[in-house]
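Suppose you are handed a protein chain with no further information: no name, no annotation, nothing but its sequence. What can you learn? This example shows the usual starting point.
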Amino acid sequence: MRAVVYKGPFEVAIEQVEDPRIQHPNDVIVRVTSTAICGSDLHMYEGRTAAEPGIVFGHENLGVIEEAGEGVTSLSRGDRVVMPFNVACGFCKNCTAGFTGFCVTVNPGFAGGAYGYVAMGPFVGGQAEYVRVPYADFNCLKLPEGTEKETDFVLLADIFPTGYHGNELADVRPGDSVAVYGGGPVGLMAAYSAILRGASKVFVVDRVAERLQKAEEIGAVPIDFTQGNPVEQIREQTAGEGTDKGIDAVGYQAQARGEDREEPATVLNSLVDTVRPTGALGVPGLYVPRDPGGPDEQAKQGMLVVAIGRLFEKGLRVGTGQCNVKRYNRQLRDLIIEDRAQPSFVVSHELPLDQAPTAYEKFDKRTEGYTKVVLHPHD
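A reasonable first move is to predict its three-dimensional structure. Written in structure tokens, the prediction is:
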């Protein structure tokens, strides 16, 4: 089958790889109809992880079941399904507690597994014609038959639940004001989720015009950090108080304000200043224990200078960690079905699989309006 294969920093290629096969009675094989490129994929694409050439990318996958193992009980050939990016067993201590992003079964020695991602287990990615799904009864979420709302449903694999998770981590409640740092796909989903949850005012901080425009279109207040300190801009619009809650949707590759260099802790420190005393921060943005491309030796070891004293002084609460997708995906699916949510507004391009190398390049450079790309392997 054809798949998107990592060749080295800033290079992917479409290559023929081995077809997936049933390895366990609980497996299914899914014919992938939609698979999205994630900002997290760019960390590997840019060589900012320990990913080795040869890995097949793709953890945001939707398709139709082509084959089911004899132990699968709730799914059948022909079912349309979307899979969380988390691969989870469903029965370990963390899974039964709802922390499916931290399954201790699927990736021995590490809490968490995912498709096509470095250090996240042996699971081949779904930017391909087919993908194997282990523990399928637990990991597959059934969708309505047909092709309706395809670009909405594929976002249930990661970014819509992850944006919602940022709000859970920050304990966003009706009437809260919220500052979201980062207007990429996850940041826009965090802002959208805050609005769905009844936030009174939502700010989105970024510098990319297309992202800020999309934020404004959904009812958020765009904050361009190239036009001045975002903390001060937000305080001016909150009577000097700051926001009730804050969400970091950027992570460790944050850019220093007004400079062409990275400053990994700048978003965390900006949020400490942005959120009012006794507020809360949600951090779904990715931070890693090792970053080969970090701007200094501390950053390369995942050690950042964060204003912990100021955070403590203000009595701020902090929630971190990757999304436990299954905690949210069924409810978010039903919002889509009932036309209460349409997260596909973030999708800028739908392309055949063969155009993935160009899509990666343009998405990485934020050119030509590339905000979110969905690939269709069988087009």
